[in-house]
Amino acid sequence: MIRRMAVVGSVSAVLLLVASSAPALAQATGEPKLPLNLTSFAVNMDARTRAASTGRVNITIERWSTDGERDRLLQALADKGSDKLLSTLQKIRPRVGYVRSDNTLAWDIYYARLTPGEDGGYRLIFATDRPIDFWEARNNTRTSEYEFMLCEIHMNRRGEGEGKLALMAKITWNKKTNTLELENYDIEPVRLNKVTEVK
Fold it and tell me: If phi over 0 gives left and psi between -120 and 50 gives alpha, with beta otherwise, what is residue 52?
């Protein structure tokens, strides 16, 4: 099932709209030092499969995205749409980190921001392009139109948390309402349970 939503209060809701002072706030309030290494227990509740699949997902953040990078991404999306957003995202250097599971190679992350939480913890949001496998590319399936991987994680002050990972997403700019919209191919994002910081 495909669902579209205005990006307000949902997974990756503030993907590109995190407060511009987020990196400075992170340093000022004693949030985690870089590199930030997180490990989590992932549960994929994809409705197209009969049973949930599970596995470990590891996330490493090496630096935070700058305000300039965020602004360039928003401008590319507003001016020329999703394709321009994707190409602009892929050109960001150096990468901000990487994500991998226990049985896959690391995949570069190109955008990551952090904001302090009210409970002394923090919220981490990251975005990157999505690996398109050979079968998708060869058969030009509908899923190949969903080019982004989006993640939002909430951590408490003890370095424990949970999050959601949208493996297939499309980001669009609604010029009529001047808002960011997120279209998910999956009915439900992958749940990231027992997220912990690895020192």
Answer: beta
Q: Can you name the residues that pair with 150 across neighbouring β-strands?
A: 127, 166
Q: Which amino acid is at 80?
A: K
Which residues of the chain are modeled with pLDDT < 50? 1-14, 17-21, 24-29, 50, 134-137
Q: How far apart are CA 77 and CA 68, in angstroms?
A: 14
Q: What is the DSSP letter of 56?
A: E
Span 139-150, pLDDT tens digits: 555 556 788 999
Name the maximum alpha-carbon separation found in the chain.
Answer: 50
Give the C-alpha separation, 57 to 132, whole Å: 18
The model's pTM: 0.81
Burial tier of 113 (Cβ tally within 10 Å: 0-12, 13-18, 19+)? buried
Burial environment of residue 23 by CB neighbours within 10 A (0 to 12, 13 to 18, 19 or more): buried
Task: With beta carbons less than 8 A apart as the criterion, state whether 131 and 141 touch.
Answer: no
Give the angle 131-43-155 at the CA atoms, nearest 5°. Answer: 90
